[in-house]
């Protein structure tokens, strides 16, 4: 398992570095801008003059005069989607990517069980997400300007935990989908699409209260964002992690039972659907035959 | 399964949807033998090999590899087996030594690194090269090394010399023969009849998911029709050669050259040629396709 864990991190090191550098530059810029934004005269009045729908969609924009609101609006409200791109694409290709390249055959011909391979890689994904967020947290805490925000390092850390849990949930979803769908790209697009759809739904539900009921069944409803600075909702956090655990167990179960495909093979065994399509095609041909005769 | 059997399959079946890849494969390989596994594309060679490693699961039938059920304990099987896939894919971003190091780590670092270097030297492979810069033949060498590096008890090789130049093919044959001397069993699939003749002690032919023949390679070659070109030292009448059993005269020119078609053993023809002033002769080896055609023709005639 250690070999697979190391190998996964080695493969992801470029992406971890790239995302960390990008987030560092962004965080450092946002920390340095905090003081300037607070000094803008009439900022609250200006924000309040925005259309109420816009304010509702993006959350409480007028709260950016506080450190909590500032971090929520400019960082945590959309980092699920931004870092989610990396997590979803990595999750979708974590195992099936090797299968599609044809390298999994040789890896699994070594004395490593599917469980060890799966856990090694999954832990590698978890570690990659953790490292990126850890660096993200440090880049808020360490710059000198962060002292002006008046938050302790623990308060800075808190909102990263729900973000971590949310990212793991969607990454694990992508991993699970990759093991049941015909291609990793399809799994990545589906999981990514669900993430973006969920993000938009949460924003729209702030405008249209009728959508609130539906949003309650989606993971991003239980994402605290910047409000976690004041205190974590441990129930929500545990729920998100439990969701990841369930999806991980389903993915592991599926990986244990499925055949390893050769590179380039695509399968999607939906017997009911394929037999229905066959029947339709056959009945269509029969109808054409009858029409000709 | 007795102690002398390296692998055994009984009634192995495997379907991919409506395609029946294996329809009851019964196969036995004795310890220490080199068995060539032949068959046309799609006959079930790769599917059989992948079942032996638990990469895919058969629908029915039993199999044992070195006395172990691969589905019950795949790790124990893989620890004692070396595998070379037919479609070899490696990590393009790694160097050769990093790729091999990764496989060593998966094997618990129990591989002798001196042995790895010795194999690389014999196959003339630079371990420091990035894999993305390797030719198909050099990638195949990496595959051969990783299959042999832990001195396995059983080698499962799917087209082991694909992409290698003739000199390297000979080196791989030597490596396999040496492995056999050390007690390793070799089970390999191939399309190259000269390869099968060079190293296999026995051959199994698979057709449409069923083993249809097990024989010595020589017997297989003899089933096919071969062409013999004979050059005579002086003008002769090659007509009598046409009356030799299993021989037909295809053409002749000026009594100095004759082309003959031979089926079965060469013995009668060689004895008949002893009465002629032969200056040179050349035998065209049958291709695997011709052997298959000869075999299937025989099988179909038997059915009729």
Uncertain parts of chain B: none
**The CATH architecture of the largest domain in chain B:** 3-Layer(aba) Sandwich
- Beta-strand portion of chain A reads under 5%
Count of the domains of chain B: 2
Span from first to last CA of chain A? 65 Å
The counted number of beta strands of chain A is: 0
Major sheet of chain B: size, sense and barrel closure?
Answer: 6 strands, mixed
**Helix content range of the residues of chain A, please?**
over 70%
In round numbers, the mean pLDDT of chain B is 88
Please describe the biggest sheet of chain A, giving its number of strands, its sense, and whether it closes into a barrel.
none
- Oligomerization state: heterodimer
State the separation between the terminal residues of chain B, measured CA to CA.
36 Å
Largest interface: A-B, 26 and 30 residues
Q: Tell me, what's the shape of chain A? A: globular
Q: State the secondary-structure class of chain B.
A: alpha/beta
Secondary structural class of chain A: mainly alpha
Task: Provide an overview of this structure.
- The complex is a heterodimer of chains A (293) and B (304).
- Chain A has 293 residues and is mainly α.
- Chain A has one domain (2-292).
- Chain A contains 13 helices and no strands.
- In chain A, helix 1 runs parallel beside helix 7, helix 4 (67-93) runs parallel beside helix 9 and helix 9 (160-180) runs parallel beside helix 12.
- The longest helix of chain A is centred in the first third of the chain and has 37 residues, at 2-38.
- The N and C termini of chain A lie far apart (65 Å).
- Chain B is an alpha/beta fold.
- Chain B has 2 domains: 5-91 and 137-221, Rossmann fold, CATH 3.40.50; 225-285, Alpha-Beta Plaits (2-Layer Sandwich).
- Helices cover 34% and strands 29% of the residues of chain B.
- In chain B, the strands form 3 sheets. A 6-stranded mixed sheet of chain B has the order 5-6-7-3-8-9, with helices on both faces. A 4-stranded antiparallel sheet of chain B has the order 11-12-10-13, with no helix packed on it.
- In chain B, strand 6 (154-158), helix 6 (166-181) and strand 7 (185-190) form a beta-alpha-beta unit.
- The longest helix of chain B is centred in the middle third of the chain and has 16 residues, at 166-181.
- Chain B starts with a strand and ends with a helix.
- Chains A and B meet through helix 1 and helix 6 of A and helix 2 and helix 3 of B.
